[in-house]
Amino acid sequence: MFSCVGYGAASATAPLKPLTFERRECGPDDVQIEITHCGVCHSDIHTVRSEWGESLYPCVPGHEIIGRVVKTGAAVTRFKVGDCVGVGCMVDSCRHCDSCTAGLEQYCDASPVWTYNSPDAAFPKEGAYTFGGYSRSIVVTEHFVLKVPETLDPAAAAPLLCAGITTWSPLAHWKVGKGHKVGVVGLGGLGHMAVKFAVALGAEVTLFTTSPSKVEDGKRLGAHRVVISKDAEAMAAESNRFDFILDAVSADHDVNAYLALLRQDGHMVLVGLPEKPMSVGAFALVGKRRSLAGSAIGGIKETQEMLDFCGKHNITADIEMIRMDQINEAYERVLRSDVKYRFVIDMESLPKAV
Length: 354
Known about the structure:
Blueprint: E1 2-8, E2 17-23, E3 30-40, H1 42-48, E4 65-72, E5 84-87, E6 90-92, H2 98-101, E7 113-114, E8 137-141, E9 146-147, H3 154-157, H4 163-173, E10 181-185, H5 189-200, E11 204-209, H6 215-220, E12 225-228, H7 232-236, E13 242-247, H8 256-259, E14 262-270, H9 282-286, E15 291-294, H10 300-313, E16 319-322, H11 327-335, E17 342-346
Parallel strand pairs: 10-11, 10-13, 11-12, 13-14, 14-15, 16-17
Antiparallel strand pairs: 1-2, 3-4, 3-8, 3-17, 4-5, 5-9, 6-7
Helix pairs in contact: 4-5
Domain Enoyl reductase (ER): 8-345
InterPro entries: ADH-like_C (IPR013149), ADH-like_N (IPR013154), ADH_Zn_CS (IPR002328), CAD-like (IPR047109), D-isomer_DH_CS1 (IPR029752), ER (IPR020843), GroES-like_sf (IPR011032), NAD(P)-bd_dom_sf (IPR036291)
Family: Belongs to the zinc-containing alcohol dehydrogenase family.
């Protein structure tokens, strides 16, 4: 084991501050990564504050990790020292259930080992749990490490490991492409990536937003059309139009208003996570054989395919870089939706020692 510097919270109400913790040594199948950048996801805030169940403390979040390989185990074949790599929301899974063998580790029957705040059987200590990317380094089994195209800005590539794959996976699964009319609901960290991907895949893309101030930004990101969802007449004009709608909103909202915009056999997929249960009208689904589904991140193979696509099409997130010591302020700004569209931490700003 070796000592690692990170930033974490001691309790659900404590601010994040510098700390040290132990990482496992690089084993035969492991890759040790020096972290250069880490994106800030709303999930980090939920976990740090125990809003999705009781978290383990100290909690070191971060699952949009970019870095350079500094060491590889003897059995590692896909990576070498100096490679630019990424680590997303998972660092392991059972690897033998039907989901895992299908390359869908995010749906592992035993639950994936999440990148932070998850029981860590690989660590040589009873009761261990994972620590995330707000840290100097991380050790991950080779299977869960991703190659990041050298052509991409590493800072702007970090959010691809969560915001990117969360929106890419449903677009790929439902085979969105040329000739499809696609709606994207919400322009935030997830929504702005959904717009970029759907446009790059050849779809005609309409952004739905409650904010007139986001119209021009939506068009800058590539949306062909922008509809203000508070405008009842504008929404009515979109009825029975869309093949596919991706809902990236986590605030409470009426999904029925968007289901009515789907064509016959159209699909609406939720990637946002509203706190309260939704009310869904059966007639909106039955009348046109529409479907409502959900989707969570993506498997390792799919995530690598997304990164390769991003390298080919030069797609990254719109980011604002911050220092590590600005993280508590950044959390408050995320809660106010005061970021376009993802914070990324420059890990060079992490203290060398605590």
